[in-house]
Amino acid sequence: MSSELYLKALEGFPEVNIGDDLSSVISNECARNNWVWEDGDILIIAQKIVSKAENRYVKLSDIHPSEKALNYVLQTGKDPRVIELILSESNKVLRTRKGLMVVEHKLGFICANAGIDQSNIKQKNENDISVLLLPKNPDQSANEIRKKIKDQTGKSIAVLIIDSHGRPWRRGVVGITIGLSGIQGVLDRRGHSDLYGYRLQVTEIGTCDELAAAASILMGQAAEGKPVVLVRGYPYSMGEGSISDVIRPENEDLFR
User: Fold this and answer.
1) pTM for this predicted structure
2) In sequence order, which residues have a C-beta less than 8 Å from that of residue 242 and are 6 or more positions away?
3) Which of 82, 100, 132 marks a domain boundary?
């Protein structure tokens, strides 16, 4: 197993617009940053630029809150139009407090406010605010980008689409994977021996989230403008996976 893992954030990444072909934009920026793809490299992409390219913008002026959304206003203090969007993007609401709704997203994972965000969005009109939803199918988005890059370069890589999420019992957001292609989301080490010959019984490693957290350090959370990170030296086999491999089923979740 390799003892080195190399991560590189692409500098000077351009603003992503609706309809942009992200694979071409990324390939151009890789060339400008003197990156030459090798088999087994991993491309990690911030969710926000995927959502921008896929036109997941919604104008709040187009949203008409339902009675259910209005009922959550007193609990959360949030804009009822945003609440309506959160409800429409979610399977269920799990917890609420001022400024926060913890939900089970339609994509299956638990997150705050259904991943709906207003940061790092260029507003055309201060009086007509837009927000950005998560991609409709992050696995599919990752797979399409991966295939296009292979067509362009001939190299087999993996792609992760990541977002920043909070965690139960701990402060601070971390990068997690919400879509993947060309890599297993969880590495099963059950049955492997430790240093002293003990066979592991329950150990499964969330390698895609470990990669996402590492990449998130380089991406930053504010005005860094580095939404793409390249990884080389991943020490495990790649394989195929999907985000469903990572999500714990509700009947195994002790916190719901």
Assistant:
1) 0.92
2) 139, 180, 185
3) 132
